Amino acid sequence: QVQLVESGGGLVQSGGSLRLSCAASGSIVNIYRLGWYRQAPGKLRELVASINWSGTKIIADSVKGRFAISRDNAKNAVYLQMNSLKPEDTAVYYCNPVPAGGSWGQGTQVTVSS
Q1: Tell me, what's the pLDDT at 114?
Q2: Confidence class for position 27, pLDDT limits 50, 70, 90
Q3: CA-CA distance, 45 to 71, in Å (whole number)?
Q4: How many CB atoms sit inside 10 A of residue 83's CB?
């Protein structure tokens, strides 16, 4: 089973940007759709963006126009570019196939200060 490791989180001021990376331990070519999820304290985990093997993207309304997802099958990686960050984007961000299955990684913490 391919393991996914997230990185790139941090503390940023409102309006700032971050780029998250998800590195896979093996090939992601056979994973049809990969997504970035987030979970804020006290809230359910939600899917914010996903991309299929051919590059078709689905972006949640809450981040549309601010977040962009990309995928590099050759590098076995998925990225989430986050711009115009808001305090409500504060959460732990995870990558996982869509639909989610198996185990979750440690995630990467994103904190947006006002």
Answers
A1: 93
A2: confident
A3: 22
A4: 14
CB proximity list for 97: less than 8 A, separation 6 or greater:
31, 32, 33, 34, 35
Q: What is the dihedral of CA 39, 42, 105, 23, to 10 degrees?
A: 20
Q: Summarize the chain as % helix, strand, coil (round to 5).
A: 5, 50, 45
The three-class DSSP label of residue 20 is strand
Side chain identity at residue 28, one-letter code:
I
Q: What is the pLDDT of residue 67?
A: 98
**CA gap 69, 51 in Å, rounded:** 7
| For range 64-76, the mean pLDDT | 96
Find tokens 């804020």 and name the residue.
Answer: 40
DSSP 52-101: ETT--EEE-TTTTTTEEEEEETTTTEEEEEE-S--GGG-EEEEEEESS--
Signed CA dihedral, 49, 81, 41, 39: sign only: positive
In whole angstroms, give the CA distance from residue 32 to residue 10. 29
Q: Which one-letter amino acid corresponds to residue 24?
A: A
Tokens of 90: 């504060």
